[in-house]
Structures are given as C-alpha cells and as structure tokens.
Amino acid sequence: MAVGLLRWLLGPRSDRTGHKRSEPPAQTWRAIDPPIGDGSYIGINRTMCRQRIERTSPRFVVRANDLITRWNAQPLAKQFLMAGGIVAATAMIVVGAFVTSLIEDAVTRNSAATTALYVDSVIAPLLPDMQTTEVLDDTVSRALDETLGQGALGGRLLAFRLWRADGTILYANEESMVGKRFELSPELKAAFDGEVVAQFTPVDDLDGETERAANKPLLEIYNPVLQPWSGQVVAVSEFHEIANDFELSLSRARIQTWLAVAGFTLAFFIMLSAIVMRGSRTIDKQRLALKQRVEELSALLEQNEMLRGRLQQASQRATALNEQMLRRIGADLHDGPAQLLAYASLRVDSEALMNTSTPTDKREREVAAIKASLDEAMREIRTICNGLVLPQIETASLREILERCVHAHRQRTGSAVDLSLSRPPDHLSPSAKICIYRFVQEALNNAYRHGGGVGQRVVQSMDGNRVRIEVADGGPGFDPDKIRPTSLGLAGLRERIESLGGTFELNGAAPGTVVRMSLGIEEVGQL
C-alpha cells in the first residue's frame, strides 16, 4: 500500500489492466493498489496531502524561530552556562575516554613487557632449537611444568600454550591441547610478526570454558620466542594470566584519570564562568544604564518637542498680540491726537485767521482754541507713550522695579498694596525685568478693576534658581474659562512669560484671585 501511495503521488501510473491512466483531477479520489481487508481501497486526496505537508512545515519553522527568540532573550551568562556546560561535558567525556584508553593501553603493554621479559629470561633457555624441533620431549615438558608451576607467575597462570608457526600447539599446561593444530588468530599472527600482543578480558567477556570456569579477569599475552643467535621468531608463547591485581590497578587508573579530567574541566569551566558572569553583569549594568539613558533622552526629547511646540505657539500668539496692540495704539492715536490735530489744522485755515479784517479779540479766541486742541493732543500722546515706555527699567534692580510699580499703582488708584520681598536676585536680564514689571502692573490693574482693590498684595520669593512673583486680591474671584480669547491682558502676560521659558498660573476661585509667575534666572539670562 505504501509503494502504491508513493507511485500515485509521484506521477502517472498504469491501472489494474495495464493501460496507462492520465493524471486525475486535483480534487478527485483514487484508489491505491493493493486493496486491503475485504477488497476495499483507501481513498487519498493528493491536494489534501500536499496542503497538510505545507501546513505542517511552517510549524517547525515557527517553533525553531520561537526557540531562537527564547534563546536570544536569555542573559549571556545563562547562555554560556548552558552552551558551555554541554561543550565542556562533551569535551570531558571525549578527552576522558581518550586518555583512559591511552592509559589502559600503556598499563597493558607495560604488563605484557614484564611478562615477555620473564619468558625471555626464564622459559626461553629451557626450549630446544625450535627450527628443527617439531615435538618437545618429556624432559623439556617436565622442566616447563616445574617452572610454570612455581614462582610469582605460577599462582596467577591459568593457561600457557607454546605455538609453532603452522598453528600446532607444542606445549600446553592442559595435556589434551598438545599436538593439536588450529588456525592462527590475529593475535598469534601479530606475535609471529615480532610484536608483543596483550589483551585484557574482563569476567563478562570470557570465551573459553576454562576461562569461564575460573570466573576471573584475564590478561592474555602473546609473546614471540626469538632464536638467540639470529633473532628470528621461532615460536609464540600464549599466557592467560589471572589479572585481579591488574584489574584493580586498571580501575584505579581509570578513576584517577576521570577525576583528574573532570576536576580540570570543572575548574576551567568555573574559571571561565566566573569571568563570563562578571562580564555579563557588567554588560547587564551597562545595558540597564543605557536603557535608562535612552528612556531619559526619549523623555527629554518629548519634553523638548512639547516645549518647542509651546514656544512656537507662544511666538505666534505673541506676534498676533503685538499686531493687536499695534492696531489698538493706532486706534488710540487715530481717535485721540489725530482728531485733535485735524481739528487744529482746520482752525488754522479758518476765515477768522486768514481774513486780515478779523477783529483782534476774535483772532485771539481762535488761536486759543487751536492751542487748547494741540495741548490736549500732546497730553494724549504722552499718556500713550507712558504706557509704551518704562523709563530707567534696565538699570533698576528687582526690588526697585517692584517698589516703583506698587508705588505707581497706589498713587494712581489710592488703594493699599502689601509688598513682600525675599532675597531678590542681584542680576536679571532686561527682558525679565520688563516681563516682571508688566506682570505686576497688569495683575494689580485687574485686581483693582475686578476685585475692587481689596486685599491686594505682591509677594516675591526664590525657589532655587527661579524667581517667583505672586499677585493676589480679596475680591469675588472669577472663572478663568470665561475669559474672552481676544483679551489682551492675561493672554499677553502668559505669552510674554512662556516666551522666556517661564510658567504662568491663574487661580480665580473665590474668595480672591491669585496670579503667579516663575522665571529661571539662568535661562532668562541667556535671552
């Protein structure tokens, strides 16, 4: 069925009669050979299979991207501990296994070399000329039995065989094996090539019946027997030595090796982790500080943008207010002095003055009228100029400005005004002095006009490097939301103060009205 499904998915196929069928429509159902069960077929829609594959593939991509995102979101120290731990553990296992293998080979070869030296020094002299001897006589066999059965090797020797190059066993401590011929094993072939071969076999890997019956680990050694005068390999001695002590030494060497590798790897990893964690903490602190700086800069940028917008609006409104003030001044000049001057001009060209026959008294009355019109025009012009010009304002201190403004208001209105000063600054820019003077002047005028001049007071104080001015009265108060947009007084004050970077506050809740302003000395000093 699986073969039929793959054949159907890959392209056109032959039907059950052997005729080639064309590709079925995308949304039709086709049976897949062979039938199952009672002869029914499994219906598979190719388009649905492809759609399922297409729907399934993005899931793996999404999961992979999710894992990558989670990984990148982890701190650097945690990433190093996870990745470095895996790499360090893998490296420890690989290095430990490699070093352990080298040590096992070295220990095994060392033991084999010791045994080979024993054979060369003790057993080899007992053997006859192996090139001419095919069978050992009884004398040699008894000598070998006595030698192998005593001494340090006798208690550990489980099996001993002496092999000839054709695979015949010349001698064995098991008499049943003597004279038999076997195919040479790879170890025997290597020994006949002049190589000492040693192989440690644990209890679980024992093969022969004798070895399994002993139920002890063995060290198999294949030692080439050399002809003394030619150095040619004439036989191979095979030792099966009980290796309890060897296994203990080997296990101890393994444990010590693994402990040394693990300790070194752990110390190295801990040292690197300490360095990385310290660096990660530094990076986290710097990242947090940078984030805070970015947030502060973003807030400052937003504040600067807001202040820039307010300053732009204040400049636009100040321009509009200046235009309104100019129109008001023009209207005052047009309706006052200009009319009087026009009247005087008409009287100058009157018949009473132009006619020489006009009586003197009438001519004098006409001249007096013209002079009166001109005098009134001059008075109105001076009045307008007094509202535009502040004499000696640039050279006066803040204390003198406030005292002069309050004194002028007292003389003009006859009302009482309390003045309170607290450490006024020694130096202010001319723009700040004019702003403060106009603020106090307009606020006192409003207090007298709308509050009846009751409880008027002016308070000056310092808030750090900012000078604060407060003007209050004890009148009925008013609703600030009902101020006309075209009103020049308060609107002009607000725009004038905000254009210098100051703040303006108005509280008209009854009883009384309080107007406050604040200017930064350093900020205003740069304007």
From TrEMBL:
GO terms for cellular component: membrane. Keywords: ATP-binding, Coiled coil, Kinase, Membrane, Nucleotide-binding, Phosphoprotein, Transferase, Transmembrane, Transmembrane helix, Two-component regulatory system. Its EC number is 2.7.13.3. It is an enzyme of class 2 (transferase). It catalyses: ATP + protein L-histidine = ADP + protein N-phospho-L-histidine. Pfam families: HATPase_c, HisKA_3. GO terms for molecular function: ATP binding; phosphorelay sensor kinase activity; protein dimerization activity. Residues 297-324 form a coiled coil. It comes from the Bacteria. The keyword Heme does not apply. SUPFAM superfamilies: ATPase domain of HSP90 chaperone/DNA topoisomerase II/histidine kinase. Residues 344-523 form the Histidine kinase domain. This is histidine kinase. The lineage of its organism: Bacteria, Pseudomonadati, Pseudomonadota, Alphaproteobacteria, Hyphomicrobiales.
